[in-house]
Amino acid sequence: MIDHEKIDVDLNEILGLCKKYLDGICLSYQVKERPDGEFISFEISNPSEKFYAIINKINDHIPCENKYKDKLSLIKRAKKSDDILLIPEVQLLQREISASLTVDKYTFGDEFLKRYTPSVTELEKQIVVSANHVVYGRRGSGKSSLLAYAMHHLKSESKPFSWIAMQTYAARKDFQVLASVLSEITRDLSHFSNRDQDFISISDELEKLGESDEASEVYSRLQKMTPRIKRMFGELSINSPVTIFLDDFHVVDLDIQPEILSILYAITRGNNGYIKLSGIEQLTNIWDGKKRKGLEPPHDIQTLELDHNLTQPDQSKGHIKNILDRHASYCGLSNIDSMANDEYMNRLVLSAAAVPRDALSLFLKSISKSISKRQRAVSITSLNSATSESIQEKLKDIERDAFSDEKARALPALEGIKNFCLNDKKISAFLVEISEKTQYYADIQKLIGLRFLHVLHKGITPYRAGERYIALMLDYGFYIGIRSARSIEIFPKNAESMITGDLRRLPILKNKK
Questions:
Q1: 88: in domain
Q2: Is residue 334 part of a domain?
Q3: Is 267 in the same domain as 130?
Q4: Any residues with CB less than 8 A from the CB of 431 and at least 6 apart, and which?
Q5: Same domain for 144 and 211?
Q6: Which of 289, 305, 321 is the last residue in one of the domains?
């Protein structure tokens, strides 16, 4: 006779362990009969080694008295669920995407290299080379991921490095920040040195200097300390190169950026040391020509352009699809095809303007909105709603990335562009003459860096030879999903290569001198 109460206790024990190992999510399952008694079959759309390991772990941790001991299995889901968005695999996918939206040196832990998605232009081959690099791209384009790729390669080979999250020093423009950054670096490097206490001692000394109120004294003291730091650095790097990573370098004040790089270069140059930094190009100043400070490309540092905006939409679509498919596979799905069709993917790439993190964020919100509407797959209407809401997040990004005086100049320019596109011309894209010396064009570039405008083509000649124009698209968030903007012509309509003739016919926004 079957003791149903005992079975329920045994089953609940197993389901509890499943939730424990999947952080609160339990896989679908069936209790089946066979000659030697009941057994549990967990179901998943795309069984993988990860999930087999979890089932084995559950079995190892249940006592012999449990009725289902050694009677657990993992099988492929027999058929596609009618409610694909509600299955556990999609719940896992939502959580994984959410966790991946902010990348730092801890993201994915030891699984980083296995889960990493290569960039469109395969910059990974360059970033691992022993050289100074600056990685440029918009927020969310994968700058931190590329730096982390290089860092994890060093970590796997037990080579010394220091990772500095420059967000700690956002908007700082005092010389004390130089001391604070050096303090972090020397403390990090203490873990790789036999003279760890010497590194910690100088780190403490630099930390105190970073908290000093006397800027002139700080700078003078740092200049005197530099030879000592360089010597210690050299002793560490004699057998293996030492790499310094500066993530989100653009957040510190433009004027202090060359100063930071100048003192770091004084320590690493000719010392088997290398600097790799990431930043938004329009907000980054790595070389001060007047003071001759910083790192001057291409002599001192190599530039890696990670972000191509919407100039290669078909490649960007493939890249974003690959990222989503990798996340899906990790979570037990074959890919995202059962959740999102090609029409949705086209709109996702354009809505995110080919920025991977924006695409992931919009996809995540599309899932939630589609579930709330009881839809069976992510829908374009849900995506449109998420896109409209996302513009507020980009405005918040300004507070993190732009300084007050620059913001005051750029935002009025944005209002004029919105009026030109949405009220005057009724089209989402336009041309602007390339005029590097004007403040208005500088504001345009800042708006590109802040993801309010997106580049469709970097330089075309619609009329007279010698007059070059940049083709731009106003961010979807300003008009998609908004009833009053339904009359706006959307350009481009698909994430495909654009015809130059179509670009030449776009309206021209006159530069304001």
A1: no
A2: yes
A3: yes
A4: 460, 462, 469, 470, 471, 472, 503, 506, 507, 508, 509
A5: yes
A6: 305
Token readout for 141 is 């384009």
CA dist., res. 275 & res. 186, Å (int): 14
* Token pair in block for residue 36: 């030697």
With a CB cutoff of 8 Å and minimum separation 6, the contacts of 92 are 22, 25, 331, 332
**355: CATH:** 1.10.8
Provide CB contacts within 8 A for 101, sequence distance 6+.
Answer: 357, 360, 361, 364
286 and 188 in a common domain: yes
Are 475 and 451 a contacting pair, CB within 8 Å? yes
Is the domain of 274 the same as that of 336?
Answer: no
pTM: 0.91
53: Cβ–Cβ under 8 A, 6 or more apart, which residues?
none
- Based on the fold, state whether residues 24 and 165 are members of the same structural domain: no
3-state secondary structure at position 10: helix
For residue 30 the two structure tokens come to: 């069936």
The CATH number covering residue 230 comes to 3.40.50
For residue 113, being part of any structural domain is answered with no
Spatial contact of 91 and 24, defined as CB atoms under 8 Å apart: no
Q: How far is CA 352 from CA 85, 122, 151, 487, in A?
A: 22, 21, 27, 21
Per-residue pLDDT tens, the chain, 513 aa: give them.
344 445 589 999 999 999 999 999 999 999 999 888 899 999 999 999 999 999 999 999 999 999 999 999 999 998 888 889 999 999 999 999 999 999 999 999 999 999 999 999 999 999 999 999 999 999 999 999 999 999 999 999 999 999 999 999 999 999 999 999 999 999 999 999 999 999 999 999 999 999 999 888 999 999 999 999 999 999 999 999 999 999 999 999 999 999 999 999 999 999 999 999 999 998 999 999 999 999 999 999 999 999 888 999 999 999 999 999 999 999 999 999 999 999 999 999 999 999 999 999 999 999 999 999 999 899 999 999 999 999 888 877 776 655 545 555 688 899 999 999 999 999 999 999 999 889 899 999 989 988 999 999 999 887 777 789 999 999 999 998 666 567 899 999 888 878 888 999 999 998 765
Q: Return d(Cα 40, Cα 68) in angstroms, integer.
A: 7
CB within 8 Å of 85: residues ≥ 6 apart: 339, 367, 370, 371, 375, 376, 377, 378
Verify that 177 and 259 share a domain, yes or no: yes
24 occurs within a structural domain: yes
Number of domains into which the chain is organized = 4
Q: How far apart are CA 64 and CA 66, in angstroms?
A: 5
**Residue 74 forms beta bridges with which residues?**
42
**Where among 276, 305, 334 does a domain terminate?**
305
Q: What is the CATH number of the domain that holds 45?
A: 3.30.70
Q: Give residue 388's domain range.
A: 313-397
Do 192 and 287 sit in the same domain of this protein? yes
User: Which residue in 409, 350, 345, 354 sits closest to 377, CA to CA?
Assistant: 345
Whether 166 and 288 share a structural domain = yes
